[in-house]
Amino acid sequence: MTSSTNQIPSWPWVGLDDCPILDWRPMEGRHFRCGSFQSSTSDEDLVEVGDGGTLDFSLAGDVPPLDREMAPGFLSYAGNGFDEIGQMRDFLEEPLPGVGTYEDFNTIDWVREKSRDRDRHREITNRSKESTFALIHSISDAFSGWLLMLLIGLSAGALAGLIDISTHWLTDLKEGVCLNGFWYNHEHCCWNSRNITFQDRDKCPEWQTWAELLTRKKNGGALAYSLNYFIYTAWALLFSLLAVLLVRGFAPYACGSGIPEIKTILSGFIIRGYLGKWTLLVKTVTLVLAVASGLSLGKEGPLVHVACCCGNILCHLFTKYRKNEAKRREVLSAAAAAGVSVAFGAPIGGVLFSLEEVSYYFPLKTLWRSFFAALVAAFTLRSINPFGNSRLVLFYVEFHAPWHLLELAPFVLLGVFGGLWGAAFIRANIAWCRRRKTTRLGRYPVAEVLVVTAATAVLAFPNQYTRMSTSELISELFNDCGRLDSSQLCDYVRNGTPGEGGGPDRLAGPEVQSAMWQLALALALKGVITVFTFGMKVPSGLFIPSMAVGAIVGRLLGVGMEQLALHHPDWVLFEAWCQPGADCITPGLYAMVGAAACLGGVTRMTVSLVVIMFELTGGLEYIVPLMAAAVTSKWVADAAAGRQGIYDSHIRLNGYPFLEAKEEFTHKTLAADAMRPRRPADPPLTALPQDAMTLGDVEGVLGSTGYSGYPVVLSRESQRLVGFVLRRDLLISIENARQTQEGIVTSSMVSFSDHSPPLPPNSPPILNLRPILDLSPFTVTDHTPMEIVVDIFRKLGLRQCLVTHNGKLLGIITKKDVLKHIAQLANQDPDSILFN
């Protein structure tokens, strides 16, 4: 191939701007300096040689010493820098500042990072045999991972407890205030009251609604109702306004769930600031405000983001995690497990969630440390006891009645509903979010949040099941009615007397019938308003709203089955196992199964979902109903809307460079079909010749192109591949050579070979850049099946591979090329996958 100056547009979202550790031993009396190289380089760009101006580097005119004996009349300098006693300088002894780091919106080199860590570990192991201090350092290095997990668990548990306590207080503040202390929520306010009965334990004189406080009347009628209605809405608007203003002004990355971005980060993508301290602070505060505002969202998903922020910040305390992006991602996988552990009170479910849903690379060592971090986080939250019930979650329940085999039919029916609702929700939410991104709606995030909050508050207040927090609603729906329960859902008629609670012959009383209508209206509101809420510029989780929708449907179905069994005990369905006068059906169990079904339909979780749900209830005997519902919902949702869950759909919507391992590549295409250039009309791929360019030529290429890497070939005529060099390596190496090596000028030849070519007399010395050359870039032939290429990119975390034919360079395939190729084969717009 020949040289070309045609430019190919660059995409700044996956880059190769990092470089291997390049250490130069300084010459006598000199020091090396690495400048700041700000560029939007990307590994998605073809590497081309362009003519043009050179970069402004300072010149040096001294002649360096000879590095080896040359033929008479010729002078050569390899650039490796021999000192006075003829020893070659070690490039790997003292790292240069800026080497090995990544630009924003770039992808890390997994293979290189793991190799670095192995070299570091090997060096520490070898040094540990030399002295006691080195041995202690080796032990502390091995223990640092467990210490980091301990700190992550403690911080995640403490923040989760703070968020839970603050959320309950602000949620109750919308309805009233405690006279004994405004910092008490409703439940805590009435704990020590002596003027309450068990039936009315939520009503105490110490707690007053805003209408009672302002009008000094206990029963104010329509005026009191209107006043409470107005203040409830006003508080909701104030909380949501503060949340969106804080997010917009201080930490834009604090909005949303965070799980799609965390999945992308764990796959190797760099998003600077997404897991920073400002994001952590703002997300913690605004999450409390957003949940307390009454919006149809939860705190469970954002708690994963909060825990990962803690993990990322604490990584800076330990050198091996601060300087290695691959090791840091192992920590973030464990932090995600800790986040789910404190969100649901499910340590084991948290580990499985991290493994099944968010992690890209999950070795066995990470599994153990994730388990430890989840354990510490759950223990910390349990010690804080934010709910006052010695439990890790608000809606912990225990069912005492067993389930029957014939009940699998309604459980599977709930799974079908969960799958259909999940598919419909994903389609509707993605369509609305795409409209928000492509229309003027996205320019007014504050107005959008206020409008949705106002609509939610106005519609939610008249219904007691939408007025209460979503977690309390789920707790109410999961509840297995007993004799002392005063809930409206437990107003059964026993022996002709309403209000006696549970027991044999539980006929639905008037309160139960009224509750069914209210739950149906709550279902409609939750199902619709969540579509518009998820994705706004406030922290918003989807776990709890999805579970609420499923729990409502499950409770409705459970009560229906209960009444059928009561009124028609002679039916074949009930005759064999439901004896007259016995409690055959547990509506709370149906609510739990429905919650699992809807959550599975939205997220496509299976194993981790079942474990989380049975950890919530504390009963192992309900695993089979949960498994049946979870598997059915996933099958139905996959058939209705594809295999992508809500988080994968948002990754695709935002154009993040994420190769989903769950999707199978079934097409019979070759590497030549995806590489660039593909057609004869495409600009030819050009590369740096091994020994035929001057320093000015190389600087001209760097100055006129923004590409992040350049293949190096034997010569422009042969196009035999030698290696691959990164732009960032070139910039740092050239600047340091200019500053520290005498005789390096613009006309100096640049060599990537181990034997420098001979030079005429009085020529400037050669700058040898072979130490920064990757001599083993990943290559495939043009006849390699794309199925294999896709697997290589997925399993090795590659950013690019070079395509050859009989050893000659033909083209390049990047992760973006793979994504575009998959989109084209799926009849989708290839440009839709670009990151914005």
TrEMBL record:
Matches recorded under InterPro entries: CBS_dom (IPR000644), CBS_dom_sf (IPR046342), Cl-channel_core (IPR014743), ClC (IPR001807)
Protein name: Chloride channel protein
Membrane topology: Multi-pass membrane protein
One Pfam family of this chain: Voltage_CLC
Keywords for this protein: CBS domain, Chloride, Endosome, Ion transport, Membrane, Transmembrane, Transmembrane helix, Transport
Cellular component aspect of the GO annotation: early endosome; endosome membrane; Golgi apparatus; plasma membrane; synaptic vesicle
Membrane-spanning ranges: 143-163, 229-254, 275-297, 303-319, 331-354, 411-432, 444-461, 515-535, 542-561, 589-614
Sequence ranges assigned to domain CBS in this UniProt record: 675-740, 769-832
UniProt-annotated location(s): Endosome membrane; Membrane
Family named by the database record: Belongs to the chloride channel (TC 2.A.49) family.
GO molecular function ontology, one term from the record: voltage-gated chloride channel activity
Natural source organism: Podarcis lilfordi
